[in-house]
Design goal:
By secondary structure, this protein is mostly helical. The protein starts with a helix and ends in an 8-residue tail after the last helix.
C-alpha cells in the first residue's frame, strides 16, 4: 500500500506526538502501521524535529551549563539501561551547533534516532498543546527545507556543479573535475 506525501507527513506527526507524550504503545502501533523503520524520510523528519527542538530549547548559542543539566537528566532517566550512553546524546546536541559534527560519524546511524528521541522526550512537556506541537512540526519542516537548500550550496558539493555559486555573476567558469 503506497502512501501519499500528505499521508506520510500525517503519520510521522502522529507518531512524534505519541512519542513526545510518552504513549509508547501508540507510537509503536503507528510506526508499524506506516512501516517507518528504515525509511530515510522518517530519519530526515526525526532529525529536523530534533534540530527544531534543540534550537528552540538552547537558542542560537549552546549553554554548557544547560547541556550538562540535560545530560545529567538523561543519565538519571536511563540509568538502568546499560545500552544508553548519555554522552552520545550530548554529542548529538553539540552537533546541532557545529561543535564537533564529525562525532556523528562515531555514533552508529542506527543508534542516532534513539538518542535524538531521548533528548526530545526530555526537552518537551508531554502536555504540550496540539497547536504548539503542530507549530513545532511546521517549524521543523521549514528548518528541513533550509538545511536541504544549504546542503546543495555546500563547498563539498561544488565538484558536482558545472559552475560554482556566484561564478555566472563574476563571469568565472568552474571547471568540472571529471
Amino acid at each position: 500500500m503506497s502512501m501519499s506525501h500528505d499521508e506520510i507527513t500525517a503519520a510521522y506527526r502522529a507518531h512524534a506526538k505519541a512519542r513526545l507524550r510518552g504513549d509508547t504503545a501508540e507510537a509503536r502501533r503507528l510506526a508499524d502501521q506506516a512501516r517507518m523503520e528504515g525509511r530515510i524520510t522518517h530519519l530526515i523528519f526525526t532529525t529536523t524535529l530534533f534540530g527544531e527542538i534543540v534550537l528552540d530549547h538552547f537558542g542560537d548559542e549552546l549553554d554548557r551549563t544547560a547541556l550538562a543539566a540535560l545530560t545529567k537528566r538523561l543519565h538519571q532517566r536511563h540509568r538502568d539501561d546499560d545500552r544508553f550512553h548519555p554522552l552520545k546524546a550530548e554529542a548529538m546536541v553539540k552537533a546541532m551547533f557545529d561543535q564537533r559534527p564529525q562525532v556523528l560519524m562515531e555514533i552508529a546511524q542506527a543508534e542516532q534516532p534513539t538518542y535524538m528521541w531521548a533528548v526530545m522526550e526530555a526537552l518537551i512537556d508531554p502536555g504540550e498543546s496540539e497547536e504548539a506541537m503542530d507549530e513545532r512540526f511546521d517549524l521543523a519542516e521549514q528548518l528541513g527545507r533550509e538545511w536541504l537548500a544549504g546542503a546543495f550550496e555546500a563547498p563539498s558539493l561544488a565538484h558536482w556543479r558545472t559552475t560554482a555559486p556566484g561564478a555566472a555573476a563574476s563571469g568565472r567558469e568552474e571547471v568540472n573535475p571529471e
